Amino acid sequence: MKAKKETKKDKPIKINNIETTLNHLQKREDRNGFPDPISVQCFQCQNYFWVKWVVPQRNYSKKNNWGYWTGKEGDKDKFIDSLCLKKYYFEQREEFLRTVVPKKQTSFRSYLACNII
Ligand SMILES: [Zn+2]
């Protein structure tokens, strides 16, 4: 008894050519039109890290931008990673309180509490 299966139609074989792979990657990187994360350098420890695009804010995450905390124009191009930000808060509290805008200190504490930093 022969049980030959007809497989001519609905063949589930996919040809993985480079073009479809590239298209697939591009679609994923596109992230629905939202910009890709950017690589920045921490001005404290010199490590590179990623700053993500925040959809509700329609901007890159500000929590790692030093100027966001100090409110100073000159600090706007400086980035600080979360580790150094926390270190600054816990180990140099006095300086933190002097440097960071009071309103932002409140945000900082809530970020800390929510584990955002
Ligand atoms: Zn750092």
Name a few traits of the molecule.
single chain; 117 residues; alpha+beta; two-stranded antiparallel sheet; 5 helices
Write down the Rg: 24 Å
The geometry reads as elongated
Ligand roster: zinc ion
What structural category arises from helix and sheet content? alpha+beta
Overall pLDDT metric: 84
User: What's the total helix number?
Assistant: 5
Oligomerization status of the protein chains = single chain
Biggest beta sheet attributes: 2 strands, antiparallel
Helix fraction, binned, reads 40-55%
SS elements, strand count = 4
- Biggest sheet strand order reads 1-2
Explain what the structure shows.
This protein is an alpha+beta fold. It has a domain at 35-113. It contains five helices and four strands; from the N terminus they run H-E-E-E-E-H-H-H-H. It has helices spanning 18-30, 66-70, 82-91, 93-99, 102-113, and strands at 38-41, 48-51, 53-54, 59-60. Helix 3 crosses helix 4 (93-99). The protein is elongated and about 80 Å long. The model has no long low-confidence stretch (mean pLDDT 84). Bound molecules: zinc ion. Zinc ion (ZN) is lined by residues 42, 44-45, 47, 80-81, 83-84.
